[in-house]
């Protein structure tokens, strides 16, 4: 609840208790309660006081004529305006405090219907004789936290720009059916908006789920392709990892070239391999003379003349 409204309700409670007390039996006493309640600077709502039996009893034909107008006066303070007070005959005369209060309440009703109020319109509606009186009333309303507004006297026409209004006017009973209808229509629109939002949320969730499933399928295919590529690479490495096999061990501690494997090379021609074994100038260890392997080396040009000198190694 708004703090200003809560303070106004709290300020009204003493008058409600007086109206419900056993001493509130005479119209004069009840009229005095209404006068004090409407004059109090902190009371701005009056519906609870209006609902008391003693106040409603003022509408009885047995009530003296001088006090019958107090019920209507309290109703005007609850939801009426200054213009309504002036247009209604046989109402009690207002004190200065009541006059200020009713004008402030009328300003609240006017501010609730329009954001910009011109000086000429407000001066006419509130029966002011000068703009200074109007500006004083607006300033009081601002300091009492009844409205948030800015005076603009230099504009054409000069106006009061209202930005916020305190919820301090009571609701007239006759307006309740219309308010209920408006609220019901608003509730229906809110329900439609909520349904649209829920449908949109489900659509977004469905799209997100489909997108997630698509990403998972793509990731799975990618991992399968990587595994297949690795398997193909390992198979290729195994095919070429053999290389040439080497033949007999020479007397120098190294292997002499022998036959190649199935990949080709010298192993494909047996005659060439035999020639290499026969003409390489080496003997295997344990064959020939006891000195082991040896090789005859030509001594250069002397071998061309036919009388080659051979040196045994």
Automatic annotation (TrEMBL):
Domain PCI: 1-165
A Pfam family it matches: CSN7_HB_subdom
PROSITE patterns the record matches: PCI
Name used for this protein in its record: PCI domain-containing protein
Compositionally skewed regions (Polar residues) per UniProt: 231-253
GO CC terms: COP9 signalosome
Keywords: Signalosome
Region (Disordered): 228-313
Highest rank taxon of the organism: Eukaryota
Residues making up the signal peptide according to the UniProt record: none
């Amino acid at each position: 609840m708004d703090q200003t409204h809560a303070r106004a309700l709290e300020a009204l409670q003493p008058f409600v208790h007086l109206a419900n007390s056993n001493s509130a039996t005479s119209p004069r006493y009840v009229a005095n309660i209404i006068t004090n309640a409407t004059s109090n600077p902190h009371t701005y709502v009056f519906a609870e006081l209006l609902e008391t039996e003693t106040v409603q009893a003022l509408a009885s034909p047995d009530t003296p004529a001088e006090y019958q107008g107090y019920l209507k006066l309290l109703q005007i303070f609850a939801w009426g305006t200054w213009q309504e007070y002036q247009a209604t005959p046989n109402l009690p005369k207002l004190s200065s405090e009541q006059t200020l209060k009713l004008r402030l309440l009328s300003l609240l009703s006017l501010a609730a219907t329009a954001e910009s109020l011109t000086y000429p319109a407000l001066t006419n509606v509130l029966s002011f004789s000068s703009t200074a009186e109007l500006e004083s009333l607006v300033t009081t309303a601002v300091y009492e936290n009844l409205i948030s507004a800015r005076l603009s006297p230099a504009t054409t026409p000069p106006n009061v720009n209202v930005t916020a209004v305190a919820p301090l006017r009571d609701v007239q009973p006759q307006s309740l059916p219309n308010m209920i209808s408006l609220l019901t229509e608003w509730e229906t629109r809110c329900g439609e908006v909520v349904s649209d939002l829920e449908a949109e949320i489900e659509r977004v969730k469905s799209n997100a789920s489909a997108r997630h499933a698509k990403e998972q399928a793509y990731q799975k295919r990618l991992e399968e392709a990587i595994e297949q590529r690795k398997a193909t690479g390992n198979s290729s490495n195994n095919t070429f990892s053999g290389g040439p096999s080497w033949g007999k061990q020479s007397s120098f501690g190294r292997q002499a070239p022998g036959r190649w494997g199935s990949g080709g090379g010298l192993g494909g021609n047996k005659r060439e391999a035999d020639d290499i074994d026969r003409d390489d100038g080496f003997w295997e260890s344990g064959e020939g003379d006891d000195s082991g392997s040896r090789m005859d080396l030509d001594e250069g040009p002397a071998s061309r003349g036919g009388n080659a000198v051979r040196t045994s190694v």
